[in-house]
Amino acid sequence: MAGLVRLLNLLTNLFPVWVVAFAVAALWHPPLFAWFAPYNVPALGIIMLGMGVTLSADDFARVLLMPRPILLGVMAQFSIMPLLGWSIATLLDLPDELAVGLILVSCCPGGTASNVVTYLARGNLALSVLMTTCSTFAAILLTPLLTEWLVGDRLPVDVMGLLKSTVQVVLLPVLAGLALHHLVPRTVEQVTTFSPLVSVVAIALICANIIGANKSLLLNNAFELCAAVGLLHLGGFSLGYGLARLFRYDPTICRTVSIEVGMQNSGLGAVLAKQHFTNPETGISIAAAPCALSAVAHSVIGSALAAWWRIRDDSRPTGDAMLDD
């Protein structure tokens, strides 16, 4: 059993490889992932259910033990990223539907993949999980409201529809997972061995499906899309770290805030874009393309940062690591 757990952890920690490999395969041959389109919403529900089963009532009590860094991370998540998304879309003069997609994903909460990267970066894993949990619950209201505020002048936004969708694909699965954690703990303990890998593969499949469906759009707008998404996440990682540093937190917390701010729940953004910003005539959601590309960008940047921080730690004499970044 221990060997299986190590293998599952290894495969889960390779999530950037999964995301990039699936994205490249989708661009090479889109039909490989076309079959997954009807399962995008259920897959996101499974991801959020997997997050929910890892939670317990005690986790919410733990928030009270470290409220300041959690509050800082959540506030940064829903201020830095949305304003960055809007600013980049405006400065690059992105077409309306691409701009809406970029802003939508910037208004999403932190993704569960941030917990994996925090672990790899030797950040504060418990804090990362709590930040993800809090930002996910906050997103139920903030994602629809911020999206309507920032993109309402570009395209009409059904804020109540967005709110309903967020409740369905975020709140209900997380609450169901939380209930299962307490009702059937032994079953949940077995499931949580596999759920992180299932979540990683599900994210990769959602993004690959959307990338494949928007292949021509992505290739024709490759430069501006890559620039926009890259700047969004580079800005999120940098400003998140700088803000935590400004408040004089130690490097482990700075790393954690940086990762939590820089990595979005791109799967949620992609699903919301497909549900609410799809062209009724073509059946294609152009707004979903930046969301899917976002998953690739933040996975690569986050993993590169984690590797850099680990190398820096390992290159320092024992006792000096983590003193400063």
What does this structure look like?
By secondary structure, the chain is mostly helical. It has one domain: Up-down Bundle (Na+/H+ antiporter like fold), CATH 1.20.1530.20. Helix 8 runs antiparallel to helix 10, helix 9 packs antiparallel against helix 15 and helix 9 packs parallel to helix 17. The protein is globular. It starts with a helix and ends in a 10-residue tail after the last helix. The model has no long low-confidence stretch (mean pLDDT 86). One of its GO terms (cellular component) is membrane. It is found in: Membrane. Keywords: Membrane, Transmembrane, Transmembrane helix.
Short note summarizing the structure:
With 325 residues, the protein is an all-alpha fold. The protein has one domain: Na+/H+ antiporter like fold (Up-down Bundle), CATH 1.20.1530.
Give me the Rg, rounded: 19 Å
Mean pLDDT: 86
How many helical elements? 17
Distance between the termini: 37 Å
Please give the domain count: 1
Name the beta content range. Answer: under 5%
Subcellular location: Membrane
Pfam families: SBF
Transmembrane segments: 7-28, 34-57, 69-92, 98-118, 125-146, 166-184, 191-211, 217-239
Keywords: Membrane, Transmembrane, Transmembrane helix
Task: For this entry, give a set of tags.
325 residues, mainly alpha, Na+/H+ antiporter like fold, 17 helices, Na+/solute_symporter_sf, Bile acid:sodium symporter family protein, BilAc:Na_symport/Acr3, Bilac:Na_transpt, transmembrane helix
Record the SSE blueprint.
Blueprint: H1 2-13, H2 15-28, H3 31-34, H4 40-53, H5 57-62, H6 67-77, H7 80-91, H8 96-106, H9 113-120, H10 125-151, H11 159-183, H12 185-213, H13 215-220, H14 222-246, H15 251-262, H16 266-276, H17 288-315
